[in-house]
Amino acid sequence: MKYKDTISFIRSLYPDKDFIPLHEPYFAGNEKKYLADCIDTTFVSSVGKYVDRFEEMVKEYTGAKYAIATVNGTAALHIALLLAGVQPGDLVITQPLTFIATCNAISYCGAKPVFVDVDPDTMGMSPESLECWLTENVEVVSLNSFELADVQPDAAFSTGRSPLNRAQPTQQDEVRSTRRSIQPSSLIAVHKTLRRPISACVPMHTFGHPCHIDKIVEICARYHIPVVEDSAESLGSYYKDRHTGTFGKLGILSFNGNKTITTGGGGMVLTDDEHLGPLAKHITTTAKKPHPWKFEHDMVGYNYRLPNVNAALGCAQMEILETILANKRETAMRYQEFFAGIPDIQYRTEPAQSISNFWLNVILLKDHIQQELFLKETNANKVMTRPAWRLMSELEMFKNSICGDLSISKEIADRLVNIPSSCRVE
Ligand SMILES: Cc1ncc(COP(=O)(O)O)c(C=O)c1O
User: Are 249 and 228 in contact (CB under 8 A)?
Assistant: First the structure.
């Protein structure tokens, strides 16, 4: 067995496990106590003290002005994209090396993804690849001079109009007014030949390692493109001392069971925007007008609010987040040291000027054949390992998408393996 030593090393990190999962939740604080409190008080649903408390804790921890808890990270992304002004028929730039939720949320808005490459050091969106694609394909035009005929969505692709349009003006008025609220300059980026707006850019902090987000935000600002950071995997990760998810117009987090901390299922929208923060809360809570007993709604909203029972878990998990991060960092350092002595396996540590949460540890095998062999041997020996997601640009639904040069993404996908990364209980 070629990878026997690596399997033994991973087993030594998790000595009391027969089957070693990739990432399992770590409950070591007040989880049971807070859950029991929800049941005792009957506040298990979308109203309750834990939802507000959880939002406060995440706000304080990340430094975002607004944090709005949602049922999962995908719902948070959907809302963030709508608030960024994404409309049916638009194009949204993202990376092919991501989880399907990124592209699903773009599709829920009736928009289409455009794929640019990732960087080899961060595995997140490459600012160079982004800039290159924008230079070749995009121009900035005045919103007023932009013709409606250019933004008609494909009938088969559209999922309907954005709920942000309260009245029923013409479609062109809707497109303009939504965009104007977030782009007061009235300039938008448009694909030169397709004449479709590029209404958002969604970089992702892959496996918890921050991408070069400041450069991405700077490039997008020149093109008047709002950035929605998919920081689903990067709670506890910082770029240049600032928490991921707080660089763009909006960011999102996920608290799915496999994440650094979990609420069972859950997500969060982050923003500093005084208008979009309250609006995010409004449309994730069915757009109900506040009133002690009357039910009145002023727009089409979503039932996306995180239930109290999930938020209770979130509060307890936030209390032990630092312990979890320190534990995961120590594991990462041990992996780094071990793989330094293994030929043909590269361990991916945190990129420069970053603090990573080391959500899922990453190694790169020599080539695709070795990747397959490593996956086979480890999984056969009850050590769970996984390749990266199949590139989004290769999936049936997105295979005809517009793409830049994706050679780094392809190389990474061919060689990458995630190795067990759960908190180690000592
Ligand atoms: C990159 C990325 N985006 C979005 C999501 C969606 O989060 P959720 O599973 O909470 O819907 C996830 C994780 O699951 C993710 O890894």
Answer: yes
